[in-house]
Amino acid sequence: KINGSRLLQERFINDEKCKSCVMKTHYVKLPFDKNLLDTSLEGVWKIRESEWFGKKTVDPDLIHIKIYTNPRFAWASYHSKGKDFVGVGGGTYEFDGAKLIEHMEYFSYYDITPGDERIDVIKQSSKAIQLINLGSAGKEIYDKVQRTSGRE
Predict the structure, then answer these.
(1) What is the pLDDT of residues 59-68, one digit of tens each?
(2) How many C-beta atoms surround the C-beta of residue 138 within 10 A?
(3) Predicted confidence band at 108 (pLDDT cuts at 50, 70, 90)?
(4) How would DSSP label each residue in the chain?
(5) What's the pTM value of the predicted model, to 2 decimals?
(6) What value does the mean pLDDT take over residues 46-68?
């Protein structure tokens, strides 16, 4: 049920532990940050190639995606064949069309102190971007995931 900026999901569970149970989940829509200067990152991006410290990263089984939906971003990595989890991270972000600042709030690899990562963005096209991290130590190229018909 949707009511303004609120969403209520109700699920009925009938299993060994709980007969005819109702699970209710409440969500509140995050406000759109009107201070975002460029919305071209909005959406889902999948990594095509990466290079760190001058060496190309080669793992054809690795799936790495980034999702930008103002004011939040998240990323996730996993291996498609083995279905093994690699990591996740996310927080909030700012983007002015050239400079991206990711305010990292969580990271699954190890404990982190929340902080900012400043990233240069080079738009290769409306459907491809290059992210340059840590003063050119990391270079990643992402393709925008296009919507398909049906469920995604």
Answers:
(1) 888 999 999 9
(2) 16
(3) confident
(4) -EETTEEEEEEEE-SSS-SSEEEEEEEEPPPP-TT-S--TT-EEEEEEEEEETTEEE--TTEEEEEEEETTEEEEEEEETTT--EEEEEEEEEEE-SSEEEEEEEEESSS----EEEEEEEEEEETTEEEEEEGGGTEEEEEEEPPP-SS--
(5) 0.73
(6) 91
Q: Is 27 exposed, middle or buried (0-12, 13-18, 19+ CB in 10 A)?
A: exposed
Pick 20 or 98 by higher pLDDT. Answer: 98
How far is Cα 64 from Cα 151, in angstroms, rounded to an integer? 20
Q: Which residues pair with 101 in a beta bridge?
A: 94, 118
Residue 23's pLDDT is: 82
Peptide bond into 114 cis (omega under 30): no
